[in-house]
Q: What sequence folds into this?
């Protein structure tokens, strides 16, 4: 087999290879101009100059629903739901102002971290997410812990047939305020899941997550069943106000709104789409042979988060095409870079037969959908695509043991892909794949 050798004019791609501690790390990849069909590079917005000022304005000029000043009152119990440490809404910068307004109104605040079925935060992680000032302010702080079945209150059944149990602190609140990040996810958009899975019980999360398997549950489809079930759960739980932020790939907050949980989230999605949704119509009938994508500072520590980029690139990739995905995956605290991906090991290589076994494992509960909703999406992508991962050498043994094709050199990954697809291969570049929506 011949090895690909570029000729003629080339363009150098700057492929993001970032982690939260290293926001300026890029890999250089030379691609022949004749091969490079399109680069989907977002024109990201600058950070908000006065985040607290924007928050104060947003809660008094809501997108639907009541103003914060109209919601608050003496003696009321106010529960704020935040995301866990893996989402980027700057809770540590927003909460001090919110807590001050709640106390000034004579209300009693509490905070619940929307961990879903993930582990509760360590004291260090709690301070990092909420800020030391908040953690030591005397406000009651709880983490959602789905293993504690007695800590949940039944609220009803959604029209999709999901029985809703929510954290007791949320169920007992007079006012519920959420603080979340709007971004593209494998299931539509982030920010909608503050009740399910954020503060929901084990069974609620599992039954809702069955909808992650439906064909309409895909990045950027806000109308999918799973997304609508999350909205409905928020209505049933009685969320009073949603605060939504957009954080760019440099971990800067560029947008904030507040208001009715559903209406404000939809408005935030429209703002998000102006930057991160791309017209990829040219790939509808002539797909790319190779898509090169990277990972940003917001997601680069764990493959279970950064690997979503692979799925987001599928709309422009031909059947059997190659995704080259660069992500350091340095790991986080005690978690190695490919943490949780071992769940997919029994089903690799990805084949129609192993796909059936994976699906049966979800339904007989020998595998859980709370993490399967992530790895199964990547597994399903591997049914369609040849996936090649560029990552740190420390990850290679575990990643190969799971079943991934890994490299420590992006040029080698690209040469192998070009050898596979030929000198005339069509190449697309999606630097920030996890946050990009490719509309074909």
A:
């Amino acid at each position: 087999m011949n090895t690909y050798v570029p000729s003629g004019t080339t363009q150098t791609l700057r492929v993001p290879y970032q982690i939260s501690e290293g926001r300026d790390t890029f890999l250089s990849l030379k691609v022949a101009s004749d091969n490079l069909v399109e680069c989907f590079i977002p024109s990201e917005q600058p950070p908000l100059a006065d985040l607290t000022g924007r928050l104060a304005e947003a809660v008094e000029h809501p997108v639907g629903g009541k103003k914060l000043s109209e919601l608050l009152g003496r003696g009321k119990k106010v529960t704020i739901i935040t995301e866990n440490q893996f989402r980027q809404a700057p809770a540590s910068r927003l909460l001090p102002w919110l807590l001050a307004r709640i106390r000034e109104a004579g209300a009693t605040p509490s905070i619940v971290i929307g961990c879903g079925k993930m582990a509760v935060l360590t004291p260090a992680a709690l301070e990092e997410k909420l800020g030391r000032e908040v953690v030591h302010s005397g406000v009651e702080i709880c983490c959602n812990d789905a293993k504690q079945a007695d800590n949940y209150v039944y609220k009803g059944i959604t029209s999709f047939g999901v029985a809703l149990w929510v954290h007791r602190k949320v169920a007992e609140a007079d006012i519920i305020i959420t603080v979340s990040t709007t971004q593209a996810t494998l299931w539509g958009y982030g920010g909608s899941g503050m009740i399910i899975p954020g503060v929901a019980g084990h069974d609620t999360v599992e039954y809702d997550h069955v909808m992650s398997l439906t064909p309409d549950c895909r990045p950027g489809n806000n109308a999918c069943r799973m997304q609508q079930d999350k909205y409905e759960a928020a209505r049933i739980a009685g969320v009073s106000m949603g605060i939504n932020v957009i954080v760019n790939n440099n971990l800067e907050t560029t947008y904030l709104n507040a208001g009715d949980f559903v209406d404000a989230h939809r408005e935030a999605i429209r703002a998000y789409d102006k930057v991160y949704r791309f017209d990829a119509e040219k790939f509808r009938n002539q797909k790319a042979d190779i898509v090169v994508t990277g990972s940003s500072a917001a997601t680069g520590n764990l493959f279970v988060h950064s690997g979503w980029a692979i799925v987001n690139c599928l709309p422009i990739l031909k059947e059997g095409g190659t995704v080259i995905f660069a992500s350091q995956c340095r790991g986080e605290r005690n978690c190695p870079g490919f943490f949780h991906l071992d769940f997919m090991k029994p089903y690799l290589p990805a084949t129609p037969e192993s796909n059936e076994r994976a699906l049966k494992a979800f339904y007989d509960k020998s595998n859980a959908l709370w993490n399967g909703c992530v790895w199964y999406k990547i597994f399903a992508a591997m049914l369609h695509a040849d996936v090649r991962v560029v990552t740190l050498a420390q990850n290679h043994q575990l990643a190969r043991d799971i079943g991934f094709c890994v490299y420590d050199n992006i040029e080698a990954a690209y040469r192998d892909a070009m050898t596979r697809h030929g000198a005339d291969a069509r190449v697309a570049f999606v630097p920030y794949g996890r946050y990009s929506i490719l509309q074909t």
